[in-house]
Each structure stands twice: as C-alpha cells, then as structure tokens.
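Feature request, filed as a ticket because there's no other form

It would be nice if the structure record came with a short human-readable summary line next to the tokens. Right now we just get the raw output. Example of a typical job, pasted below so the devs can see what we mean:
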Amino acid sequence: MHYTYYAEIRHEETGEFGIYMPDLPEVITGGKTKEEALDNAQEALGLALCGRYADNEEIPAAAHKQGIPIMPDAWTISKLAVLEAFRREKITKTELAQRLGKQEAEARRILDPYHFTKLQTLERALEAMGKLLVISVRDKPRRTA
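Raw output as currently delivered:
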C-alpha cells in the first residue's frame, strides 16, 4: 500500500503558497513559505485519507505523477495500512479482537482513524490479518516546483 500523492504548488495573489492535489481535491492547504505549505500538505493529506476511510470511501491510487511528491507521516501510513487491510480482510471487529487476544472495544479503537494507537499495536493488528509492516528509509524527495 502506497500513500504518495503529487501536489501542485501555486504562488497565490496573497503572496502565500497554495497546495492542491488533483487525486484528492479535498486537500487544499498552503502556507506563508513553500516549506510551510508542503509541511501543511503532509498533515492535510493524512487527514483527508483518514477522512475518506471514516466516510467509508475508497482511497484512490495516485493517478497524477507530476508535481511534488507528498506522503503522510509514518504513523498515519501505518494506521491507514491497518484500516485498508481490515477492509480487504472482510472480518468483523470481534474477529480482529479475537485474533489479537483483546476486547472488542480495543479493536474499535484500533480501527478508529482518529484514535492514536501505538505503532507496536498497529504492527500486531497487521500481522493478525496476514500483513507485515515494513519500514524503510530512503532519500527525501526534492521539494522543488
């Protein structure tokens, strides 16, 4: 599961920088500087993707490959991976709780896109659904436009 989307950055009439994502039109943000706008875009992207899950909408793959690559922070990516795996696994919250050896209330919290869950718990939830969380480090993409 990849959550990299591409942003267009525009220098607005106000002097600020606006960020737009063609694949996720609800992501509109900006900042006084390019760097601030891009940092805000990372947060806005994570909120938009979690919002789509909360609204039971599909999370689209990035179709536009031009612009500045933006991805949510590592925790949000991990949470989204759990949510997507749960959706694809087609099990109940009760079944996930049983697989984890936890109460159903804990499974509900794990599956709440806005509830903070420890990374280790997200990793265990993925494992319970036959997935492996892999974290890698690579060079940061250049943020030029």
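Something like this underneath would help us a lot:
Residues 34-54 form the longest helix (21 residues).
The two ends are 26 Å apart (CA to CA).
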